[in-house]
Write a structure and sequence with these properties.
The complex is a heterodimer of chains A (253) and B (241). With 253 residues, chain A is an all-alpha fold. Helix content of chain A is 77%, strand content 0%. In chain B, β8 and β9 form a beta hairpin. Classes of the chains: A mainly alpha (253), B alpha/beta (241).
Chain lengths: 253, 241
């Protein structure tokens, strides 16, 4: 166990370097990755609001917020897996704590999330006041981060062992995208499928954030506590799986 | 004082009869019961101790397990069974790319590699001139590493390593690419390290180098220790086998 300052310094250096490699000399690259959720929004908005005529209060904001949250989850879980492959030369030469690599990917995705949310608030500002319960907001974001971390810790070792996990995860993400109230609201879910909403921390995260930011209501505390519980379990399970399997599976890279 | 204690170390690589790198293949294999593999003993029940200040040579034929042993001591791969105890900071030099990134410049790679070896940002900043000049690549500090020759890369890695001032050095064939100026420069450093009671494990096929530098040598054969004794004796055994 090395000192904390070593890990912080390593995470910072790797983050800066990743950033540089990803967007090397291309301002457009940065712009593109920030634009992605907004382009996705535009497409889905046209389909659901204009073509399918879906009616919901503040639908555009609900949709955009859902997409931003989803994008964080999807991008981070994919990025974390893949960064092991791109860092293979390092891992093959020097001892690195694999958790540090996950945290580098997390930092990257968090930065995008913060910028995207910032843009969202600027747009929101034109129509609605930006006043909401900051305490709940931060708490829910924190649980989103831990849930995403937990999921990433579970799938990453399997990705190291089996190269097709990348594609399997893409398919699962597709399913999850439509099973999560992003393009629709929780009120659209039929009673008998409501348990799917309760079992999905992403769904509760999006729903609660919509309540506090767009509708200026308190979130449903029962749901939030339940989602925190699930998040906690996911994270613990993920941590244990990751610590047990990653050192073994790194050899398969 | 022992700085490295290796106890009953075994490393098995599972070599599948058919390579299955996807979950799909694995499940199909599982269903038709063909997930068979062979156990390759890269290291087989290896035990030895290294005292502080010793320079140890590691020799053996290709595939005898030298690199595997160093990687386990460095903590890069996990052994199948057995234990390794290391007292002190370790700097590994295990392959010719050292974990450097070809798309980054020399300077950026120094920051990367330095951070990986445990140097703080300030320390790297203070010493970057020194690092570049020892490696004799000042002119190329903003050149991408993919445009470096392998000897230049090795110089750079060695040069960063010196700054970390490690207690234990693990070297795997690092002189294979050094030129006539650089090798003596490294040897100077090793002489200094000898005085400072640092420990070096040196895997090589260059028996002369091993002879001149290491008082003791470990001879590996198919993952087992064939001999661990004074270098001259061990080299004789190796040459006569
Ligand atoms: N990641 C791996 N997966 C499967 N087998 C491996 C792996 N790494 C090494 N091996 C096998 O382990 C054995 C020992 O390899 P190792 O690289 O330690 O030999 P070496 O003594 O360093 O050889 P050389 O002199 O060629 O450098 C070899 O048979 C090699 O094929
Ligand atoms: Mg080798």
């Amino acid at each position: 166990m090395k000192k904390l300052s070593y890990h912080l310094n390593l995470i910072r250096t790797l983050s800066l370097i990743d950033f540089k490699l990803k967007y090397y000399g291309t301002f457009l690259g940065i712009l593109w990755s920030l634009l992605k959720p907004f382009l996705m929004f535009l497409t889905l908005y046209i389909i659901f609001s204009k073509i399918l005529q879906l009616k919901a209060q503040h639908y555009a904001y609900q949709l955009l917020l859902g997409i931003i949250i989803w994008n964080f989850f999807a991008d981070f879980t994919k990025e974390a897996m893949k960064s092991f492959k791109s860092k293979y030369p390092i891992l093959n030469n020097i001892k690195v704590n694999p958790l540090d690599i996950i945290l580098v990917a997390l930092g990257h995705s968090l930065l995008s999330l913060i910028i995207n949310l910032g843009i969202f608030f600027i747009i929101l500002n034109f129509e609605l006041p930006i006043s909401f319960n900051l305490k709940y907001f931060l708490l829910i974001l924190l649980s989103l981060i831990f849930f995403s971390l937990g999921v990433s810790l579970i799938i990453t070792p399997f990705y190291l062992r089996f190269s097709d996990v990348e594609h399997i995860w893409d398919v699962i993400l597709q399913l999850l995208f439509w099973a999560t109230p992003i393009t629709y609201g929780v009120s659209f879910i039929p009673q008998k499928y409501l348990f799917l909403h309760l079992l999905n921390p992403l769904s509760i995260t999006i729903n609660s954030l919509r309540s506090i930011i767009i509708f200026k209501e308190l979130p449903i505390i029962r749901e939030i506590l339940f989602s925190f519980g699930l998040t906690f379990c996911t994270f613990i399970v993920g941590f244990l799986i990751f610590q047990k399997l990653t050192p073994k599976f790194l050899e398969y890279l | 004082m022992n700085v490295i204690e290796v106890e009953k170390l075994t490393k098995i690589f599972k070599i599948p009869h058919e390579k299955k790198s996807t979950l799909f293949e694995y499940i199909i294999g599982f269903l038709v019961e063909s997930n068979s593999y062979e156990n390759l003993y890269a290291l087989n029940n290896v035990s030895f101790k290294v005292k502080k200040g010793e320079f140890i040579g590691i020799i053996g034929k290709n595939g005898s397990g030298k690199t595997t042993l160093l990687k386990i001591i460095a903590g890069i791969i996990k052994p199948t069974s057995g234990k390794v105890k290391v007292n002190g900071s370790v700097a590994p030099f295990l392959s010719l790319n050292f974990g450097f990134h070809g798309e980054l410049t020399a300077k950026e790679n120094i920051y990367l590699y330095g951070s990986l070896l445990g140097l703080s940002k300030e320390k790297i900043k203070q010493n970057i001139e020194k690092i570049l000049s020892f490696a004799e690549v000042e002119k190329f500090q903003d050149t991408k590493l993919k445009n470096f020759s392998s000897g230049m890369v090795a110089r750079l890695a060695f040069s960063v390593m010196i700054q970390t001032n490690p207690d234990i050095l693990l070297l795997d064939e690092i002189f294979a690419v050094g030129d006539k100026d650089f090798v003596p420069k490294c040897l100077e450093v090793f002489k200094k390290y000898k005085k400072e009671q640092k420990t070096i494990l040196f895997a090589s096929h260059d028996l002369e180098m091993v002879q001149s530098f290491c008082e003791k040598t470990l001879l590996l054969e198919n993952g087992k220790i064939r001999a661990f004794d004074q270098t001259k004796k061990v080299i004789d055994i190796y040459l006569n086998s």
